[in-house]
Amino acid sequence: MSGLPQGWVKVPIAELFEFKYGKGLPQEKRNHGEINVYGSNGVVGQHDDVVTHGPTIIIGRKGSVGEVHLSQQPCWPIDTTYFIDQFPAGLPPQYWALYLKSLCLGQQEKSSAIPGISREDIYKIKVPLPPLKEQRRIVAKLEELLVKVDVSQKRLEKIPLILKRFRQAVLAAACSGRLTTDWREENTDCVGANLVFAQKEGQSQGLPLQNGGEGEELPEGWEVTCVSKLASLITSGSRGWAQYYADSGSIFIRAQNINSDFLDLSDVAYVRLPDQTEGLRTKIQKDDLLITITGANVTKSARVSDHLGDAYVSQHVALVRLKDISLSPFLFLFIVSSAHGRAQLLDAAYGQGKPGLNLDNIRSVRVPLPPLPEQHEIVRCVEALFTLADQLEVRYQKAKAHVDRLTQSILAKAFRGELVPRDPADEPASVLLERIRAERAKSAPAPRSKVTPRPAQKTYTSKPEPLPLAAEPAVAYGPTIPDRILSAMQPGRDYSRADVTVASGITDAEWLWAIRQLKEEGRVRQTGERRGARYRRA
């Protein structure tokens, strides 16, 4: 075949495997045994009975369409799956589970609004069949490589949490003075009485602050105040803004615009306000602090670092405007520090079981304030360290994308025949295919014989004598009949009465006599009643 390695053949997947339908098992009927129950997305529960009796490949049919899982133990695939539990000529289940996973079957069915994939569509797929020994060599190599990929992925998964903790540790050190310990020793002239507000013409000097903090010993020169003493305005958006929404106009800042502790205008709303509306009091200025006061992202905040033009906040966002805007960079760091401002706000938001803040909660936040020169140094150090963290995050994203592609790249190389060396002594795949066909043909159930119905005849004979009960046959049936029935039934499969009688060559009367005996002995189980009854070897 063109494009195939020597000794390989291409064949429809239908010639290799039967994709069987899973069997329904409602959650309330699962007995929580030791047998795994598989849905389309993996193990969904446990039971004390099985559908399959050995290694099984499970493929998502509905829901997580195309997801592939391999169970090395007997299991119960439910009716949202297909499964393969017969591997003719010793085909390795591990190889074919990985191959099916590489096909990304879930991406092939896009024609229906309800996610699903047709078994007939899968059967049409032609797959490369390597020699059996080469399949086993490929499995061994893949297991070796994919373990390394898995280890790399697990290590990479830890990096976002490490970076998050690093940023919070930086903020904690910054807001407690630990980050600038060396700076204070070198700049003793900046440590002294802390007058928060500079003396300006027409403006009174700020009130002296109380020394000391809550739970921390403050560095020399730091003093504690509260947000209400630092702010000239603390407010929140008005209700009823919905009537002013527009496709363009003034920017309208909502909670989702600050849910990552920075101002994100990628999904911004707009409003058009009539003149002298009450909402004008919430117009945003540069260096304002914005704090989420309701909803799941309560306490998430942002600093307005640029001029936004005409912009306003919603009722879910508080606006804090400082008397001295030079304090804004440091105060923002304090507010978003999980060990400082955010901790106080969260205590207030959830202290009474309500996920929300009022403006008094914000006014009462206590702030240990360094001298202004030290604030500038703290902000500079934090920005430098955060820039380093951002650079590491970019490198992490690139590494993660590379590792995420690595598995598919390795699988593609394996199934092109490029992963392991070929051995000229291997049995060709064409010979393997003939053995597979012969084995599957031998194990296929015998076709039903067609019975030509007799034409109905109208008779007027007297009522016949009733037939004897199956448990009391008119003749003595041979003891081999139950064994013939069991021989015609493969373990793990369901059969109808007609399937078994045709395959075993027994009469209906013999069936009735023998099946009752087999059920009483526990050697055969019956599901369903009358016409829908199915039978399985226990």
UniProtKB/TrEMBL annotation:
GO terms for molecular function: endonuclease activity. CDD domains: RMtype1_S_EcoAO83I-TRD1-CR1_like, RMtype1_S_EcoJA65PI-TRD1-CR1_like. Residues 441-466 are annotated as: Disordered. Gene3D superfamilies: DNA methylase specificity domains. It holds the Pfam family Methylase_S. InterPro entries: Restrct_endonuc_typeI_TRD, Restrct_endonuc_typeI_TRD_sf, Type-I_RE_S_subunit. PANTHER family: TYPE I RESTRICTION ENZYME ECOKI SPECIFICITY SUBUNIT, TYPE-1 RESTRICTION ENZYME ECOKI SPECIFICITY PROTEIN. Belongs to the type-I restriction system S methylase family. This is Restriction endonuclease subunit S. It comes from Geobacter benzoatilyticus. The lineage of its organism: Bacteria, Pseudomonadati, Thermodesulfobacteriota, Desulfuromonadia, Geobacterales.
